[in-house]
Amino acid sequence: MEIGTNDYRVWTEGSTIHYEGTMRLSGTDAYAPILEIMNAVLAEKPELITLDLSGLEFLNSSGINLLAKFTIEIRKQPDVGVRVLGSKAIPWQSKSLKNLQRLHPALELTIS
Amino acid sequence: MSVQEVTSEPAAKQDPPRIGRFSRHSFRAKFILVVSAAVLFDLMLAGGVAIWNVQRLSKDATEKVGTGLTRATEEYLQTYIDTTALRTDLLLDQVFSEVEALGGSMQTLIDNPETGTEVGLTVENDPKLGDKLVFNPDAGWSQNSPGESVVSVWGYLLDDEGNPTPEVQAQIADSSAFNLIAPGMMKTGAPKLQMYYVGPKDKPIMRTTPYTDQAQTFDKLYPGHNEDNFWDFFFPGVYEGWQAWIADPEARPVPRDIVGTAPYIDAITGAQIVSFFYPLWTADRSDVAGMTAVDITLDQLSSLVENVKIAETGFGFLTSSAGNVLAVSEAGAETLGLVSVGGEGQGVTGFNRFLKQSRFPAVATLELPHNTGTVIDDITLREKEREDGEEYIVVLKELAPINLWDGENIVAENLTLGFMVAKDEIYAPLTAVQQQLSEATQRIVYWQIAALLVSLLIVTVAVYAISGRITNGLSRLAAAARALQNKDYSVRVDIPTRDEVAAVGLAFNRMAEEISYHTENLENLVEERTSKLETANREIVALNNRLKSENLRLGAELDVAKRIQEMVLPRRSELEGIPQIEIAGFMEPADEVGGDYYDVLFDGDHIKVGIGDVTGHGLESGVLMLMVQSVARALQEKGDKDPVAFLDVLNRAVYKNITRTRSDKHLTLAFVDYYDGRVTLSGQHEEVLIIRANGETERIDTMDLGFPVGLEADISAFVATQELDFGPEDILILHTDGITEAENDAGEFFGLDRLSQSAHDNREKSAKAIAEAVINDVKSHIADHKVFDDITLVVLKHR
C-alpha cells in the first residue's frame, strides 16, 4: 500500500509503515486515508508494528494527533508491540515522539 | 393535416428538376462527354504527333534525296564534261600530231638539203609519184594532172611560157616528198578533210592530198588570188607571226608551233572547216620555210560535241573564247537561241554564231570561264520582255589553249566546252521521288485520320454502352432519394455491383431504415429524452442547492471560528492594567483559521499567562479553544494556585467534553505563573525563551513539564513545574510553531535561533516593540511564501 503526493509518501512493508517528506494535511479528514493504511496493518495484529519516521521532515499538529491516536489504539491491544524510529536531525521528532512513549510506555522509541 | 400541407409546399418548390436519362445534364451524358473528350484529346495528340512526325520524315527524306541527287547530278555532269573535254583535247591532239608528223618529215628533208634534193628528184622521176605539171593558159597557173595529190603553181611563179622558174622548179622538186608521205597519212589516223603543204613566201607553191581541182576552186571562190602572194592573200599575218617567233621563241602565245584558224567555209570542199598549220623552218632556222597543214571539218569536232546526250534533250556545245559557237547540234543551237551570221573577210570565209547575239539575255550575258576550272550554273532561258522561261543547268569547261590566227595575228585561244540541260529533265527522278514521298505522306495522313475517326467512333459506342451500366446504380439512387424526399420511407435500392455506388446504396438503405424508424418513433423518443433531461436537471438543481448551502455553512463556520478566536483574546486595556509585567500579545490567523490560543489572567497578585495550539482548524478547533479558555478562567477565579492541579483539572474537563463531542482533537498548552519576581512554568508546549537583563539567553524545554491536553483522561503523572527568577528588565517570550515553522520560498524554517536572535537584538525595547520587531523579522523571512499556520507571539517584560 502506498499513498503520496509531491510532498510526502507513506507506504507499508509488511508490518512496517514508512513516512517520508513533509506532511501538512489540513485536518483529521485529510489524514483519514493514511490512518486507514495504519489501521489495516494493526488489523493484522502483528507482533510488532514499526513506524519509521526517520524520513519525515515535517509533521503538523493534526499529524501528531494522528500518531497519538494510533498509539492509543495499539495500547488497547497488549499483544501488539510497537516500535517508532526517528531521527535526531529532525527537531520536531525528539520533542514530540516522547509523548507517544508516555501514552504507551511499552512503545519502543529509537531516535538515532 | 393542415400542418403537413404547409410543410410539403415549400419542399415541392425546392424539388430539383427531374433529370431525364439522356438529358445533357444527366450524369451519363457528362460521363460520356468527359470520356469521349479524353479519348478525343488522346487520339488527337497521338495522331497529331504521328502526322507531324510523318511530315517531318517526308520533308527530311525529300531534302536528303534532293541533296543527294543534286550532288550526284553535278558530279555526273562534271565527270561527263571532263571526259568530253579530254576527248576533244585528244582529238585535236591527234590531228596536231599528224600535221606535226607530216611537218617533221618535211623539215628533215629541208635540214638535209642534199638528201632532200635527191629524194625530191627520185620522187619527181617516179612515173606514179612525180608531178606532171600542166599549164592552164586561161587561168594563168600550172597544176598537175589528177593523182594521189595535187600541186598548184601560181601564175606569179611561172615564166612567160608557163613553166616554173628554176627556183620554183627546185622548190617543187624539194617538196615532192609530200607525194610520198602525205597520202598515206591522209588515209590513216583521225578523219581529216585534207592535208597540204605551202612553200615559203617567195615560192608559195601549194600541195594538197587528196587530189582536188584546188586552183579552179580558188579561181571561182577567191578571184585575184593568182596575182597576189598566197600567204598575204589567204593568211595575212601568219607568216610574219612565225618570223617573229624565230627572234623570240617566248613570243609564242602557246608553247607549241601549231596554229589554228577560226572555222571557215573551205574554198575547195565548201565544207565548214578548221585548219591547223605547222610552220617549217629553213635549215639554219633563220626564216620560215613554209608550212604543213591539215583541214578538218567542223563536223568531226561537232560529232564529238553533238554526241553529248544528257537526259532527254541535254546537249553539248563548243565555243571560242569570243563566244563564237563552233560546234552544236541544230536543236542545241535553237535552244541557245543562236543566230548564224555569214562572215565576210579576206582570204578564207569565216562564220559567226555568237552567244552574245542569242535571243536569250541569259545566254547573251553568259560569262565564259578562264582559268577557273569547271563552272556549273543555273540559268533561265526567257526571251526579252517575256515572263515565262525554262530553267537550265549550264556547265562550262575551258579546254587546253591553242595558238589561233584571228585573221590578222596569232593569239592564244581557249575553246570552251559547254553543256546545257533542262532542269526538269535532269531532276526528273528527283521530282518523281519527291512526288512519291509526298503521295506516301498524304496516304499515311489519310489513313491516320481514318483510324482516328474509327477509334473515336468505337470508343464512343463502347462508352455509351458501358456508361449505362455504370450510371445505372446512380440513377436508381437518385430515384430512391426522390422517393424518400416525397416521404416514401419504404423505398430501398438494389445495386448488384460491388463498387462505391453499391456501398452508397447500402448506406442509403440503412439511412432510409433509420429515417423510417426515427420518423415513426420520433415522438416517443422526444418524450423519453425530455423526461431524462428533466430528471437530470432536477438532480443538478438539487446538487447545486446542496453545494450552495454547504458553501454557506463552511463560510459561516469559518466566520464563527474567527470571531471566537478574536473574542477570547485579552483586550489591550486589560494587559496595560497589569502593574509588574509589561505584556504584549500578537496573533495572526492563517487563511483557514488555526487553533492558536493565548490568554492572560490577572487577579491582582498573580499573573497567569497561557499559550496553546489546538490541532486542526475551523469551528471545532475554535470551540475547543473557547472551552479551554473558559475552564482556565473558571479555575483562576476559583483561586487554584497549584499549576499541576490547575492543568490536571483543565485536562479532565476538556477530555470529557472532547469525548462527549466525539471530537478527535487535542492541544498543547503551557502556563507561566508570575508572582513576586519569580515565574513558574507548567505544561508541555514550545520552548520558552528568557532573555535576562544582562543579555543572557535561556531556553527552557517544556517537554517534561506536561502532556498534550485532551488526549488522555489523566495527565497528572506527566505534569511538572519549573521555577525561575524573573527580575527587572528580564524578558520572557512564548510562541507557537507558526513562528518557528514559518517557511520562506526555499522551504527554510524561521527557527528558534532566528527568533532568539531577533528578540535579543531588540531586548532594550518595550514588550510591544519587541513583539513588533520579531513579527517583522518573521514576515520578511516568509516574504511572498504561503503562511501555513497561525502566528502567535507573547512577550513578557519585567517593568
Q: Could you outline the blueprint of secondary structure elements for this entry?
A:
The complex is a heterodimer of chains A (112) and B (799).
Chain A: E1 2-4, E2 8-13, E3 16-23, H1 28-43, E4 48-59, H2 61-75, E5 81-86, H3 91-103, E6 108-111
Parallel strand pairs in A: 3-4, 4-5, 5-6
Antiparallel strand pairs in A: 1-2, 2-3
Chain B: H1 2-14, H2 27-111, H3 113-125, E1 133-136, E2 141-144, E3 150-153, H4 166-174, H5 177-187, E4 194-198, E5 206-209, H6 214-221, H7 230-234, H8 238-247, E6 259-261, E7 264-265, E8 272-281, E9 288-297, H9 298-306, E10 315-319, E11 325-328, H10 330-336, E12 341-342, E13 349-352, H11 361-364, E14 375-381, E15 390-398, E16 402-405, E17 410-413, E18 416-422, H12 423-426, H13 428-485, H14 500-568, H15 572-576, E19 581-588, E20 596-602, E21 607-614, H16 618-638, H17 643-661, E22 667-675, E23 678-682, E24 688-691, E25 697-700, E26 721-725, E27 731-735, H18 737-740, H19 751-761, H20 767-782, E28 791-798
Parallel strand pairs in B: 6-16
Antiparallel strand pairs in B: 1-2, 2-3, 3-5, 4-5, 4-9, 6-8, 7-8, 7-13, 8-9, 10-11, 10-18, 12-13, 14-15, 15-18, 16-17, 19-28, 20-21, 21-22, 22-23, 23-26, 24-25, 24-27, 27-28
Helix pairs in contact in B: 2-3, 2-5, 2-13, 3-4, 13-14, 14-16, 16-17
